[in-house]
Design a protein that fits this description.
- This protein is an alpha/beta fold and 338 residues long.
- Helix content is 44%, strand content 14%.
- The protein is built from twelve helices and ten strands.
- Bound molecules: 1,3-dihydroxyacetonephosphate (13P).
- The site of 1,3-dihydroxyacetonephosphate has 10 residues, from helix 11.
- 1,3-dihydroxyacetonephosphate (13P) binds next to helix 11.
Length: 338
């Protein structure tokens, strides 16, 4: 569908480099402020900038991180010495990405469900972001599990949004990360999450086909198949098996790669789950991480807004990146935690 096919495939491959994954540092203003509040960090643009400077200047990060997803504000920010964050990442060999959705709003007529917005003007915004150095993008749709939810309407509306976004990205030469997140809120069991995740992925890929999206030039960012937070918990192996089984059934082998969100799992579990998925038969696609909280939680807590803690916080980020990089190859060992 596009002249950009080769460069899209090259970018997708670079993001899926062996032993590496993505750093999701694209928290919106509201989300970033929500993470700052309990740590007593003032919710200012300057503090968000200081925190993001800590992340992007972490020494050796590129050994385990192939790409970083930025929020729009961050794409235009600079380090204290005046160097644009984009240039710092590029110089380190980390591909720059950008969250382009405008967030999830209540879906009219469907209480408890949401639709992700942001398609208006997206073609023009993608041109600007690409001009600023972004080579990939992210759009997140959220689906809740509850009695009777998610509705087929919410699944279809969000899948169509994801497909329209992905097609616009590829038209602009930007690799789309397609993120349909089935949330882990609730008391449902593993089987329910598996059934819902399967249905969502089936509908998403049907829409991607209908919109002519080049599968080799896109990445999927799914939830793992997990029981609800309040539901019956299961072993690491059970999560890995259910997740891989679902993805094998629903995700075409042509897809450029799969990079999980962490979704509220603890950092340690997110690593163990990914590692366990690599213990079985070879997988048809590269399978890695694109974590936000599971990479950043320790670092943010250690930093707590105080520059005296930058080095310790960066070490904590690097440790999580290293453990997850190993997990993406099935080589994580608890002894690596140090
Ligand atoms: P979490 O890993 O914290 O779920 O964030 C990943 C992400 O990018 C959500 O859109």
């Amino acid at each position: 569908m596009t002249d950009h096919s080769n460069s899209l495939i090259d970018t997708a491959r670079a993001l899926m480099a062996a032993g590496k994954g993505l750093l999701a540092m694209d928290e919106s203003l509201g989300t970033c402020n929500r993470r700052f509040a309990p740590l007593g960090i003032a919710q200012t643009e300057e503090n968000r900038r200081r925190y993001r400077e800590l992340l992007v200047t972490t020494p050796q990060l590129a050994q385990h991180i192939s790409g970083a997803i930025l929020f729009e504000e961050t794409l235009y920010q600079h380090a204290k010495d005046g160097t644009p964050f984009v240039d710092i990442l590029k110089a380190a060999g980390i591909v720059v990405g950008i969250k382009v959705d405008a967030g999830a709003q209540p879906l009219a007529g469907f209480p408890g469900e949401r639709i992700t917005e942001g398609l208006d003007g997206l073609r023009e915004r993608l041109q600007q972001y690409a001009g600023q150095g972004a080579r990939f993008a992210k759009w997140r749709a959220v689906l809740s599990i509850d009695t009777g939810l998610p509705s087929r309407t919410a699944i279809e509306a969000n899948a169509q949004g994801l497909a329209r976004y992905a097609a616009l990205c590829q038209e602009a030469g930007v690799v789309p990360i397609v993120e349909p997140e089935v949330l882990m809120d609730g008391d449902h069991d593993l089987a329910r999450c598996q059934a819902v995740t399967r249905e969502v992925l089936d509908v998403v890929f049907a829409q991607l086909h209908r919109h002519g999206v080049l599968l080799e030039g896109m990445l999927l960012k799914p939830n793992m198949v997990l029981p609800g937070e309040g539901g019956p918990q299961v072993s690491v192996q059970a999560v890995a098996q259910a997740t891989v089984e679902t993805l094998r059934r629903a995700v075409p082998a042509a897809v450029g790669g799969i990079a999980f969100l962490s979704g509220g799992q603890s950092s340690a579990l997110a690593t163990e789950h990914l590692n366990a998925m690599h213990q079985g038969a070879p997988l048809p696609w590269p399978l890695t991480f694109s974590y936000g909280r599971a990479l950043q939680d320790d670092a943010l807590r250690l930093w707590a807004g105080d520059d005296a803690n930058v080095q310790r916080a960066q070490q904590a980020l690097l440790l999580r990146a290293r453990c997850n990089g190993a997990a993406a190859q099935g080589q994580y060992r608890p002894a690596m935690e140090g």
